[in-house]
């Protein structure tokens, strides 16, 4: 309906022009006692602002001419504005279609709901990791900011199912509910979980009560930014070097040392072998600091006799080159890992 407004205003403008011409023709015919054709010609010339070849002899004719000129200026301004808006809408809709097509080509991406301070930081980490993501925000300014940062972004309300579908919910691997409102994050989580029972959902909460409700709604992980920030600030005082080290290795921005998680796939050459047999540190330079077995639970400081099974997730730490070598070691047989 909104998109038809320019065309509707153009139609109203043309109708107004026809009414003005009809009124001008009748007026000139009555005031100047001219023929109908001459009166129509005078009305067209006057309304179209082309000028008139002769000034009316009577005051009434002159007054009518001035009125028609003002009507003509108003009609042309309104119709011109509607035409410009229609052209602009056509250009914008074309750009929007191109953006939608790019999003439709994405697979296994993450949907970030909300581009406030938290959403921006999440997107920054994703960009540093080279991961695909789509931002959904109902604030046009925030959407433009996201696009200026190089993100795929949709102007829409994340609590609406159609906007989540437009962001590729059916093809996404994860969703982050980072809106400022706990209630909205709860709605987003419910909608996403209902549509995608297998989706990884990480949600933002302001307190323990919201955290509990979000988990009940289907969030896999819930983060409380204020609690996390408070814990980090306390550790910067109590354990400054430990906190600084963890901040460096968990950031995607230029860290020389970083953590990475790698899932052991089926067909991998390491299945059935132990950490000791693989000599991981000697061959890759990386260290395995934890192993999450498929059955559940983390094994920190894993024993050298720990056996790798398909579906296990390892947590490795090392430089970018070390992590690259570790990913190649755990890649399926015959597969290659690109940096």
Describe the structure.
Strand 4 (about 175), helix 7 and strand 5 (about 200-205) form a beta-alpha-beta unit. The chain has 13 helices and 10 strands. The model has no long low-confidence stretch (mean pLDDT about 85). The longest helix is centred in the N-terminal third of the chain and has 46 residues, at about 60-105. It has about 350 residues and is of the alpha/beta class.
Q: Layout of SSEs?
A:
Elements: H1 5-32, H2 36-47, H3 59-104, E1 110-113, H4 117-129, E2 133-137, H5 140-148, E3 152-155, H6 161-166, E4 174-177, H7 182-195, E5 200-204, H8 208-217, E6 221-223, H9 225-238, H10 240-249, E7 258-263, H11 275-278, H12 280-284, E8 287-292, E9 298-300, E10 313-318, H13 320-329
Parallel strand pairs: 1-2, 1-4, 2-3, 4-5, 5-6
Antiparallel strand pairs: 7-10, 8-9, 8-10
Helix pairs in contact: 1-2, 1-3, 7-8, 9-10
**What's the CATH H-level superfamily name of the largest domain?**
NAD(P)-binding Rossmann-like Domain
Question: What fold name goes in the CATH topology slot of the largest domain?
Answer: Rossmann fold
Question: What is the 3D form?
Answer: elongated
What's the pLDDT, averaged over the residues?
85
- State the name of the first-level CATH class of the largest domain: Alpha Beta
Strand order of the largest sheet: 3-2-1-4-5-6
Derived from helix and strand composition plus strand pairing, the structural class reads alpha/beta
State Rg.
33 Å
Question: What are the low-pLDDT stretches, counting only 5+ consecutive residues below 50?
Answer: none
The number of E-state strands comes to 10
- CATH architecture grouping of the largest domain: 3-Layer(aba) Sandwich
Query: End-to-end span in angstroms?
Result: 48 Å
Which sheet architecture does the biggest sheet show?
A: 6 strands, parallel
Helix content: 40-55%
Percentage of β-strand residues: 5-15%
How many domains? The number is 3
